[in-house]
Amino acid sequence: MIFPRKNPFVENKDRPESYYSLVEDTEGFAVFDIGSNTIKFLAARQKRDNTIEFLLHQSFTTRLAEGLFFTGELSPEAIYRTLDILSLLRRQADELGLRSRIAAATSAVRDSKNRKYFLKKAEEILGHKILLLSGDDEAKIIYRGVCSDPLLQGQASPLTVVDVGGGSSEWIQGKEKTPEYFLSLPLGAIRIRDRFVRGYPVGTKTVARMLLCLEKQLQDPLREIKGGCQKVMGTGGTISTMANIFQQSSKEDFLKTHLFSMDTDSIQKKIEELAHYDLEQLSTVPGLPLNRVEIIIPGMAVVFATLSVLGSATLVSSIRGLRYGLLDLLVTEKLQVG
């Protein structure tokens, strides 16, 4: 499908950002993560020694969940933006010769009344089926992605993970690669914004009400993973953006973002600071991209409420979220077939 109109919602979509250099390998993989706020793409190759080389690591904001909280449906504009990007990424995967592919849709699609229509159109563009993940499956695959990091292999203590997306957030705890507790709730950054934010500056009173409601909502569900959870691993766009803000990065730097630590007190102070900014001021914050100025405070509120309920002192950012879990599924399946 060719879209005749330019998509103004996406910046620099024709300039992929290289993560690692292209290499000559035996097998190529493409992962399409259709999220509520962003479409994430991961390209990788399996070398002859079966090791995985990451080629491209990209994110495009399409706000698929825009207005979903009020209407229960994906809007025509949000569908157009998302299909536009999927068309671009399909062409990119074709050009790279990535034969093994997997695509998954999450909260916005599974919660929408018109999900069948969207999935039909998206599958026509990609040329293959799209997995519609349940909240539990999304949580398990996120955990699988985080655990695929070689730097986290062999840890004896339980690993606790939070992923703050646009439509939903997930909480997982487990040991090694086995999730023992997992939870998905419709508490993504876009939904929290639609629920609480009426203007900018957001204001400290709104932030206080937001945090109080979130902490009350999380108390019972997170009770099972409270014990001794001093450090939490975080994935998703909100948390990677937080890492960029604290490092004042001029642009997203995956190598700097990955495994960057943030303490709870600093996160609280940053939320309080940002609550006084209007949209123009938010747009000048180092490390905060324009496409996240409206949702960064709600997203950070979910993070802080999580740390508060769990009694955790530290959040560690990881880039290895859902798309890395999907890649691990794809590679494992290929090895089993082979």
UniProtKB/TrEMBL annotation:
Pfam families: Ppx-GppA. InterPro entries: ATPase_NBD, GppA/Ppx_hydrolase, Ppx_GppA_N. CDD domains: ASKHA_NBD_AaPPX-GppA_MtPPX2-like (cd24054). GO terms for molecular function: pyrophosphatase activity. Keywords: Membrane, Transmembrane, Transmembrane helix. This is Exopolyphosphatase. PANTHER family: EXOPOLYPHOSPHATASE, RETROGRADE REGULATION PROTEIN 2. The chain crosses the membrane at residues 295-316. Residues 46-328 form the Ppx/GppA phosphatase N-terminal domain.
